[in-house]
Amino acid sequence: MKGCKICGISDLDTLNFLINHKYPPQFIGFICNYKKSSRYVELKKLNELLTIDKKKSNFVAVLVKPNEGILEEIKNLPFDYYQIYDCTPKEIKKIKEKYNKKIITALTIVEESDVQKCHLFSEVTDIYLFDSKGYEKSMAFDHELIKKIKVNKPLMIAGDIQINDHLEYYKKIADIIDISGGLETSGLKDKSKIDIFLKKIKQVHNET
Q1: Cys bridge to 104: 2, 5, 127, 138, which one at CB 3.0-4.6 A?
Q2: What b/e readout covers 8-47, taking b as 16+ CB neighbours within 10 angstroms?
Q3: Cα 103–Cα 105–Cα 111 angle in degrees, nearest 5
Q4: ∠ at Cα 152 (149, 155), nearest 5°?
């Protein structure tokens, strides 16, 4: 287990907590253009949040089929990765080359054939993310579907992961755990859950 990504951060208090935690997440995600999500962050607020020193964490812009407008608006923000949904390999290659960002290709999984699509993105991807079809909702998918996949890039897994799950199981099939809703109480990030999760990730990492 190489680390974790905590996604859907939208307030400075939580962001400060993550960055200054004893075991900070490797990745912190911000929903940049998907307005259906309750975790969506408007551009003005995003500019305010991202003035912070990210220290050891990488900032990730989560983008669902981004158009040129949003890409131009965020191009000068300190994002290390663009996590992209619903784009073709050709579209991602264009984005990667123009904006010089590392790419997390997000693939939404229902069945085995969805998993195999990852091979189409091998030239443009830095990290593969296997997620559910839920987008703004925390939905699960059968994680067994990706157990046999062989890729030469880090593999990130999402899909309704909870802090009381057996994280040791996930390390058998992925390098990085991506979690959002599982760290919330009544729709808001819960620092106590975040603390438990980051400590568990550290423990699992130490056991590898």
Answers
A1: 127
A2: bbbeeebbebbbebebbbbbbbbbbbbeebebbbeeeebe
A3: 170
A4: 60
* Spatial contact of 57 and 25, defined as CB atoms under 8 Å apart: yes
Q: DSSP string of 194-205? A: HHHHHHHHHHHH
Length of the chain: 208
Q: At a CB cut-off of 8 Å and minimum separation 6, what does 132 contact?
A: 108, 109, 138, 139, 140, 141, 158, 159, 160
What's the pLDDT score for residue 169? 85
127 CB neighbour count, 10 Å cutoff: 23
**Where in the sequence is the domain holding 118, given as residue range(s)?**
3-207
Q: Are 50 and 77 in contact (CB under 8 A)?
A: yes
Exposure string for 97-114, b = 16+ CB within 10 A, e = fewer: eebebebbbbbbbeeeeb
Per the confidence metrics, is the pTM higher than 0.85? yes
Domain harbouring 27, CATH code: 3.20.20.70
Residue 71, classed as helix, strand or coil, is helix
Q: How does pLDDT run across 76-85, given as a tens digit for each residue?
A: 999 999 999 9
Contact between 197 and 183 under an 8 Å Cβ cutoff? The reply is yes
What is the tally of structural domains in the chain?
1
Q: Residue 43 is which amino acid?
A: L
Rg of the chain in Å (alpha carbons): 16
Say what the pLDDT of residue 110 is. 85
